[in-house]
Amino acid sequence: MNEIKFEEPQDLPIDARITLQLSYATIGYLYDAIVELVTNSDDSYKRLERDGIADKGEIRIRVRRVKGGKCERLEVIDFAEGMNKEKLEKALIFAGEASGFEHGKSVRGLFGRGLKEAIIALGKGEIYSIKDDKLSIAEVWIDKKPRRRLIEKAYTPTEEEREEIGITEGNGTAVRIIVTNDKIKCPDLKTFLPQITNHYALRDINSATDRKVILEFESPEKHDLKMVKTISYEAPMTKEKLVDQSIKIPAYGDNIELRIYESDHKLESPYNNPFAKAGLLIKTAGAILDNQLFKYQSENGAFFFFGEVSWPNLAERLRKGEALLDLSRAGIEWRQEVCQVLKSEIEKIIEPFVEEKRRQLEVKPPRKPSEKVSKLNRALCSLLNRLAKEHFSETRLDTGLVGDEKIKDLTIKPPYANLEIEKERPFSVYAPLTIVGIGSGPYQAEVKSSNPAHIQVLNPTVTLQPHRERPLLYYGNFRVLGKTDKEEATLTCTFSEHIATANVRVAPLGKIGTRKKPKAKGGFFQGIEADRGVNPSQRVRYDESSGMIWIYVKFPGISEYFEDNLNFKSETSRPMYAELIGEAFCRFIARDYVEKGEVPRIPGGEVEAVTIAMNKAQAEYLHQIHDAVLRQRL
Length: 634
Hints:
By secondary structure, the chain is of the alpha+beta class. It folds into four domains: about 15-230, Heat Shock Protein 90; about 240-360, no CATH class; about 370-385 and about 525-630, no CATH class; about 415-505, Immunoglobulin-like, CATH 2.60.40.2020. It has helices spanning about 15-25, 30-50, 85-90, 115-120, 160-165, 190-200, 205, 310-320, 335-360, 370-395, 435, 575-595, 605-630, and strands at about 60-65, 70-80, 125-130, 135-145, 145-150, 170-180, 210-220, 225-230, 240-250, 255-265, 280-285, 285-290, 305-310, 410-415, 415-420, 425-430, 445-450, 455, 460-465, 475-480, 490-495, 500-505, 525-530, 540-545, 550. The strands form four sheets. Strands 14, 15, 16, 17, 18, 19, 20, 21 and 22 form a nine-stranded mixed β-sheet that branches. Strands 5-4-3-6-2-1-7-8 form an eight-stranded mixed β-sheet. Helix 1 crosses helix 4 (about 115-120) and helix 10 (about 370-395) packs across helix 13 (about 605-630). The protein is flat, with a radius of gyration of 28 Å.
C-alpha cells in the first residue's frame, strides 16, 4: 500500500440539530433555565470561597411576565468572579469544561453544560461579565444554527453601563435572555415562587447562610406588579431523625452517607415533581442531582419521609466517563447496575418505616366536626383572610401607587375612601426625597382626624422609610377606624411645612367615593382541620401551599381540649382554640416582618429576630382572633 498522508487532526464538528436537541432536552421549563444559571453563579462563589476571597454571595433573578403567561425576559446576576474575554469564550464552547468539575472541584457544572442550553432553548442571550474592571460581552442566538458573537476587546465600563447591567461595583456576571420560545411559559407569582424556592436542585443554595437569592418579579398585566422577594427554602418540620448511617454499595465498595427524617405531616411525592419535599436527595461534590423515593414513589406511607444520600464516589465515576446521569440532566440513570444496587440497599432500609406508616394511615378516619365548629372555622378563615389582606396592603411594595405615578409633594393614598364601621382601614403617606432631604432619619409625619370622636386615627405618628422600589421616595402607613355610620372627616398629614389631606366617610365599601372591588378568589386561609398524627413535633401548623391550618390533637396537652375531629370538649377549649389559630396566623405574619426587614436581622441572632417579629404580630392581631372566637355561639 502506498504511503497515505493525512491532514492535521481537527475536532469532530457537532451538527446544529444535535445542539438544539441537547438544549431542548435540558431546558423544558423556565425553572430549568433558572436552575442552570443560578447553580453556575453558586459555582463561581464557591471558587472564590475556596481561594479565601470574601464575597457577598448574592444572586439576583429577574423575570418579566407578560400577557398570556409568556416570559418576555429572564436575567440572572451574580457578583462573584466575573470572566475575562478568554474565559467567557471558553464558557461558550459546547461540552467545554469551564466550571472546574473535571479538576475535582465541588461544583455542579458537569462537562460545561447549562449556560448555552439555557440561552438556546429560550431564545437570544446576552452575557455581560466584569473582571478586574474590564467588561466582556457575548451574544448567543439561533440563526438556522447556534451562533455566538464576542466583543472585540474588553473595556472599562462607565457607571451608567454598570447600572444598566446590574453590577454597580466589583466583579460579576449578568446573563440576560430575551425569550422567543413560545413553549416556555411563566406561571403567575403564586405558582412560580414556590417552584424556584422548593426545586430540589436549588435547596442547598436557597437555604445556605452564605447565599442570598433574590427574585425580582415583574408582571405589567397584573396592575404593574413588581415584587422583590428573598428566596429561602424551609425544610419540613420533623418528628425525629430515623436513619443516620454509613453504608457501602455491595460489590462496588462506594461509601454512602444516608440520613432519613420523618415529617410531622404528609408531603408531596417527588414522582415527576421537582418541587416535592418528600424524597431522598442524591448528592455528590456539592451538587444535588436527584430526589427519589424509589419503588415507593406512589406509596402514601412514604410521603412522610425525606432526607439525603451523600455519594462522594459518584463524582469520581462521572469524571471517569461513566454514564450515570440522565442525558437530559433529569437525575440519576437508575438503570445502570451500580445505581440499581444502591437503590435496592436504600429500599431495604426505608421499607420498615414505610410499612409502619402505612399501618398508621389505615386507622378509620374520624367523623366530621359539628356544624357549629365548622361554622366557626369558616368565620375564622374569613377573618384571617381579611387581616392578611389588610396587612399586605399596608406593608408590601404595592402601597397604592399606580404604574410610574410621580409623587411631587406629601401625599396620602387613597385620597378618598369609605370606612366600614368598626373595621380598620390602612392608608399610606408618601414623601419625595426633595422634601425629606438627605440625613440619617428617622423621619416622622403626624396625622390627625377632623372628627376624632367618630373617625379615629389609630397610629397618628407615621415613620417614613425609604421605598424599596423607588429610591427617591419615602413612605409610611397609618390605620383609621370608623366608629359611627355616615360620619365624615378630613385626614390631615403634616411633615415639616408640608401638608396632605384625604377625605373619608363611614359607609359600606363601594357605595360612595370608591369603586367596588372584585372579590378575591380564595385567600391565604382555606380551612382548619385536625391532624391525628402520633408524636407530632408542634401543636399547630399553617401550610401555605394548601391554605390549611392543622391542629395536632395528639400533641401533649391539646387532647384535653379537643376530640379527634376537633370538636370542643369543654368551654375551656375556646381560649385554647383561639390561641392555636392565633399562633399559626401570627407566625405567618412574623415571617413576613422578618423577610421585609421590618424586624432587623442580626447576624447570629436569627432566633431572636423571629421572636421579636412574633411578639409584634401577636400584639397586632391576637386580640382580634380571641374576640372572634369568644363571640361565636356554639
